[in-house]
Structures are given as C-alpha cells and as structure tokens.
Design brief:
It contains 2 helices and no strands. It is mainly α. Helix 1 runs antiparallel to helix 2.
C-alpha cells in the first residue's frame, strides 16, 4: 500500500517539475523577446535624421526606422502571445504544487499509520514476553514453596 502512495507522490513531483521547466522556458523566451525589443528601440533611437540635404539618405533612414518599428511590433505580438501561456502554466504549477503536497501528506500519513501499527505490534509482543516470564517466575515460586 505504501508503494502506491510513493508512486503517486513521485508522479505528482514529476508533473510539478515538468510544469516548472515549461514555465522557466516561457519566462526565458519572454525575457529574450523583451531584450530584443529594447535593443530594437535603442537602434531606432540611434538613427537621427540629417538636418539638411541628402534626400535619399533621409528616405533610407525613414525606411529603416519604419522597419525597426515593424520589428518592434512583431516582437511585442510574440510577447503578447506568450503571456496567456505563461499565466496558464502558472495556474498549472499552482495545481501541481497542491497535488504534490497532498500526495506527500497522504504518504506521510500512511507511513505514520504503519509505524503506529508496528509499534503496537512490538508492544504487544513485549507484553506477551513479560507476561510469560512473570508466570514462569511466579509459577516456580509457588511450586517450590
């Protein structure tokens, strides 16, 4: 019976670890995307338009700024798409933690019950041995006296 509870606890722990790993991956992806977004913003800020002349250069810079803004929007869309997944994983992790703690609690209760049962059995055996010795000693005294 204890084996079943240990298996359940192990299973719950593995599920919890799987969800934790998935959550860490999502957090890492989100962090990388945010870093990429900040890098693109810095790149956009570094582009400054010339004050005079060179219309072709101005058009090229405006085009480059436009493509950076589009890249920033794409990165933000990716971040926005990952946030609900992150929230769902956080909920799953919370549920997995609860299930794992419940399984550990049940397992420890079973171990405690087994220990109590073994303790009672050992005490019963000791009582039986003490009783036999008592009667053996008292029986010999009565017979010799």
């Amino acid at each position: 019976m204890l084996k079943n509870y240990r298996s359940l606890t192990k299973l719950r722990k593995q599920e919890k670890q799987r969800v934790e790993m998935a959550l860490m991956e999502i957090n890492s992806k989100i962090e990388n995307l945010r870093s990429e977004k900040e890098s693109l913003r810095a790149q956009e800020r570094s582009l400054s338009l010339p004050r005079s002349g060179e219309g072709a250069r101005v058009l090229a810079l405006l085009s480059q700024k436009s493509s950076i803004k589009a890249a920033i929007k794409r990165v933000q869309a990716q971040i926005d798409a990952l946030l609900p997944v992150k929230e769902e994983l956080q909920e799953r992790l919370k549920a997995a933690n609860i299930a794992f703690e419940q399984a550990k609690s049940m397992e420890s209760k079973v171990v405690e019950d087994i220990m109590k049962s073994e303790s009672r059995r050992a005490q019963s055996m000791l009582d039986e041995i003490a009783s036999q010795q008592f009667w053996r000693l008292n029986g010999l005294k009565k017979g010799s006296g």
